[in-house]
Amino acid sequence: MSNQAHTLERRVEEVQHYYGGTLTDKEDLATNVCTVDEPPSETIKAILAQIHEDVQMRFYGCGAPFPPLLEGATVLDLGCGGGRDCFVLSSLVGEQGKVIGVDATAEQIAFAQDYVEHHREVFGYAKSNVQFLQGKIEALDKLGIAPESVDVIVSNCVINLSMTKADVLAGMAKLLKPGGEIYFADIYADRRLAPELKNDPLIVGECIGDALYFEDFVRLARAAGFLDVRITAKALKTIANPAIEAKLGGAKLYSITLRLFKMDLEDRCEDYGQVAIYKGNLPEAPDRFVLDNGHAFDTGRAVSVCRNTADMIRKSRYRTLFDVIGEGRRHYGLFQCGAQQIEFTPALADAGVCGPSGCGC
């Protein structure tokens, strides 16, 4: 075994020990890094009320990676731990959907498996739609999941634990269907952390030691083919442990939720004269749809968009939520992204842009 392979194997064993032995529930955490800052939506709050209390106590996530429009979807959860997010997703995808949870720690998988039948009964399903697999997120091709068979991949404060994040991204790209989405929360730093932090099992287990400088993650994502990384939520983390905080040398940590799409996008926002109009037909968002921190669409309002944004909403499962005007054949230079709003006027209607009631109004 090479030195690199030995180091990777040792790291996996340390993480498995931390999450399978050291931590028995979230009260054992040494910091506040693996805690959720963003409040759940009313939909998620209602589902969480149905999740078994023991499962909720084994939850160590830092976000709420539950994108909309999951009914009937196949969703893969990387680093599923005790299964909390998988059981939430089980409700969101419905009985005809499918949820696959993957974790490297045998104790976590065994724990989650014990609650499959409980949640099947809670949700009133004839057959459970949740499957748990033990395996490494760096080796997704070893799990027997068919390539391009997954609609959405989620993860909650886990990818930072991997020493080979490029392998994780490459594996996700292979499993996603064209137009599929990665929607995940993780911990990032505002600078490159001291290398010696990677050798402290406690700091690594607390999702700090291997946390990437955010710009370095963007570079990895682009190398894997995800050229346009979108932020949907960002929160500064408090460490709540002076000894560990002192080792960070002033670095700040953030929990950031990102969405990436598997499609042919450009590495810059380019202007092709396109306009998007949100129909308001997502039940949980009747007035406004938020694609990311820079792109919000009020119902019935025409919004100029770059071609990447146009493709994200017209070539993904969100296509049913929007009217996109413009074929994107003529280029007008760089686009200043930020969801510039356009008031709908009769002049826009004359130009072929649809209003709140559709074209021709």
Automatic annotation (TrEMBL):
Keywords: Methyltransferase, S-adenosyl-L-methionine, Transferase. One of its GO terms (molecular function) is methyltransferase activity. It comes from the Bacteria. GO terms for biological process: methylation. It is an enzyme of class 2 (transferase). Its EC number is 2.1.1.137. InterPro entries: Arsenite_MeTrfase-like (IPR026669), Methyltranfer_dom (IPR025714), SAM-dependent_MTases_sf (IPR029063). It holds the Pfam family Methyltransf_31. It catalyses: arsenic triglutathione + 2 [thioredoxin]-dithiol + 2 S-adenosyl-L-methionine + H2O = dimethylarsinous acid + 2 [thioredoxin]-disulfide + 3 glutathione + 2 S-adenosyl-L-homocysteine + 2 H(+); arsenic triglutathione + [thioredoxin]-dithiol + S-adenosyl-L-methionine + 2 H2O = methylarsonous acid + [thioredoxin]-disulfide + 3 glutathione + S-adenosyl-L-homocysteine + H(+); arsenic triglutathione + 3 [thioredoxin]-dithiol + 3 S-adenosyl-L-methionine = trimethylarsine + 3 [thioredoxin]-disulfide + 3 glutathione + 3 S-adenosyl-L-homocysteine + 3 H(+). The keyword Lipoprotein does not apply. Residues 71-219 form the Methyltransferase domain. Belongs to the methyltransferase superfamily. Arsenite methyltransferase family. This is Arsenite methyltransferase.
